[in-house]
Design goal:
This protein is mostly beta strands. It is built from one helix and eight strands. Helix content is 14%, strand content 52%.
Length: 141
């Protein structure tokens, strides 16, 4: 009897370990977007922002992560990244050179969107569908 209990315990431990090691299914919303707390601004004016995203399906059209940086009265779009929609968590990084007036180190706000281009209407023109968005106060280093 003790041997059976020991074997059952070992099998249970192995099952728990294999489940913990396996990728877990996402139980929340299918499309999620985050912005990291820090971005960078280089001497040449290159701004780099990043975060994470998850999207489940891009069969209706390509999906992109776009970002806008706002500091004082200045606002500029910072790059765009093509998303991979496979239900897994991915990182995104957008960068752009912004010269006049340049961004400075310190506080700023980032508005990011996860957007899909979907062919709609009688002409099948690609129209944006916003899947998720995120806004965050960040520190530019």
């Amino acid at each position: 009897m003790r041997a059976r209990l020991a074997l059952a315990g070992a099998l249970l431990a192995a099952a728990v370990t294999s489940v913990a090691a396996a990728p877990t299914a996402w139980a929340g919303p299918a499309d999620v977007l985050t912005v990291d707390a820090y971005g960078t601004v280089a001497e040449d004016g290159t701004v780099r922002l990043s975060g994470t995203y998850r999207c489940a399906d891009d069969s209706a059209g390509p999906v992109f992560v776009g970002s806008t940086l706002i500091q004082a009265d200045r606002s500029a779009g910072i790059g765009g990244t093509r998303a991979v929609c496979d239900g897994r968590l991915h990182t995104w990084t957008n960068s752009s050179v912004v010269k006049e007036p340049a961004y400075r180190t310190g506080g700023a706000r980032v508005e990011a969107t996860l957007m899909q281009l979907t062919a709609t209407g009688p002409l099948s023109l690609p129209m944006p569908e916003f899947l998720a968005d995120a806004t965050r106060t960040v520190t530019l280093n």
